[in-house]
Specification:
Oligomer: single chain
Largest sheet: 9 strands, mixed
Number of domains: 2
Helix content: 25-40%
Mean pLDDT: 92
Low-confidence stretches: none
Strand order of the largest sheet: 7-13-12-11-10-14-19-21-22
CATH topology of the largest domain: Glutaconate Coenzyme A-transferase
Number of helices: 15
Length: about 450
């Protein structure tokens, strides 16, 4: 049977496709997926189902299962929450009606591959893909992430067909035979940038001025998610550099333009020279056409991209990541306020650790010195009780605020405290100095 006939055989409606979900099933929606039509059809079955676990990578649509009345039918378990998400899921997280998943994707799928009994594969996967190409392969679009493994291990795979999806090199494809059902959208899906543009504030410009000198020609770069770290890209921290390369979880907004300008050539990369490598890409409408079918962009599964050994194998690896708090010992908190989850770890732990192991590597943690209202210092004596350490102090290298650079690697607690107090907001330095004397001096 040719692929066109096979595809037609697997076409169905969203309502028909989701009938395979049974009470007690585990349903996964990967990161960088938004199969809104299929997901809504499943969410609408809330009176028919009970005890269905929804594993969410990062939600992008407002659906009935986020509301309290759906709790009997659906237990929502997000891996990553952020301000980009629909309001109901943020409310669910705040009210603790959901349970945050804790496990790096690289380790989770290693456990599945090894058959560990505590690593249950999903029963059903919902995701979106491109239409098949002339050989019957569909693209996974702007993000590969954990999609290939979820497709491999799931009992049933249901895909929403999105004609606006890009195609790239790397591992960004599966054959239509790997997908059980396809649901075509009733209308052509209008392209929407995967993530909104970020604001380049005066504060970000000051931080950028301190980060820029830490970047050298030929470096391989990772930029993590965050309002400060991503804004630095558009604030010009890479201007005037030559032969930089991307190896990052997600190429941030502005990163595609730097490839187009010839600043990011990847010419000196240890792995995948000449290629911009990630598991996902954020781009504007104009940049989409530059990425589409461009062989210089390669997307791979997150289990490879974020693996510590892959990252550390790059000479001159520089990781730039966003933090919410840093304490005076160098502990980095990037995903919670106390015990309340705010986002998720993403790839920060792997990149912060692996980059300092890389030959010539550096880890740079960036954050404003205070909260947006200026009332709370983000440099704190000790982490707040109940907060979760995203990256341990042993691997904290550079910390940068709008007041300067703290160089922590290899330094004692006292020297670290002095470095961090010097880049705190001046209004908070006296109380930080007092706390440091109490904590670290006799």
């Amino acid at each position: 049977m040719n692929w066109q006939a096979e595809y037609q055989k697997r076409l169905t409606t969203a309502e028909e496709a989701v009938k395979v979900v049974r009470s007690g099933d585990v349903v996964a929606i990967p990161v960088y997926s938004n199969p809104a039509v299929i997901a809504k059809a499943l969410a609408n079955r809330l009176t028919e189902l009970s005890g269905v676990t929804i594993l969410l990578g990062a939600a992008a649509s407002d659906l009935p299962w986020y509301h309290p009345e759906a709790a009997r039918a659906f237990q929502i378990e997000p891996w990553y929450t952020s301000p980009y998400l629909p309001k109901p899921i943020r409310q669910m997280v705040l009210e603790k009606r959901s349970d945050h998943r804790i496990c790096p994707s690289a380790l989770l799928f290693k456990a599945l591959h090894e058959g560990r009994p505590d690593a249950r594969p999903p029963d059903v996967v919902l995701l979106d893909v491109s239409p098949p190409d002339h050989n019957g392969f569909v693209s996974l679009g702007a993000g590969v992430w954990d999609k290939k493994e979820l497709i491999q291990y799931a009992r049933t795979v249901i895909a929403e067909v999105n004609p606006s999806f890009i195609r790239t090199a790397g591992e960004n494809f599966v054959h239509l035979r790997d997908i059980d059902s396809f649901v075509e959208l009733p209308e052509t899906e209008e392209f929407r940038p995967p993530f909104p543009a970020v604001e380049v504030s005066a504060q970000v410009k000051h931080i950028a001025a301190f980060v820029a000198p830490l970047i050298r020609d030929g470096d391989t770069i990772e930029v993590g998610a965050g309002s400060t770290s991503e804004a630095l890209v558009q604030a010009g921290i890479f201007a005037g550099r030559n032969d930089l390369g991307w190896h990052t979880e997600r190429i941030p907004r502005g990163g595609v333009e730097l490839v187009r300008q010839g600043i990011f050539t990847g010419a000196r990369k240890t792995l995948h020279p000449g290629r911009a490598v990630a598991t996902a890409i954020a781009f504007s409408r104009d940049e989409r056409e530059f990425v589409h079918y461009n062989p210089h962009f390669e997307l791979y599964r997150v289990a490879y991209i974020n693996h510590i050994s892959t990252i550390a194998a790059h000479d001159n690896m520089v990781a730039i990541n966003n933090a919410l708090r840093v304490d005076l010992t160098g502990q980095v908190i990037a995903d919670s306020f106390g015990p309340q989850m705010f986002t998720g770890t993403g790839g920060l732990p792997e990149y912060a650790i692996a980059s300092v192991y890389a030959k010539g590597g550096r880890s740079i943690i960036v954050l404003p010195s205070t909260t947006s209202d200026g009332k709370i210092s983000r440099i704190v004596p000790l982490i707040e009780e109940g907060s979760f350490v995203t990256s341990p102090r042993q691997f904290t290298d550079y910390v940068v605020t709008e007041y300067g650079v703290a160089r922590l690697f290899g330094k004692t607690q006292r020297r670290r405290a002095e470095e961090l107090i010097a880049i705190a907001h001046p209004d908070f330095r006296p109380e930080l100095e007092k706390a440091a004397k109490r904590l670290f001096w006799p």
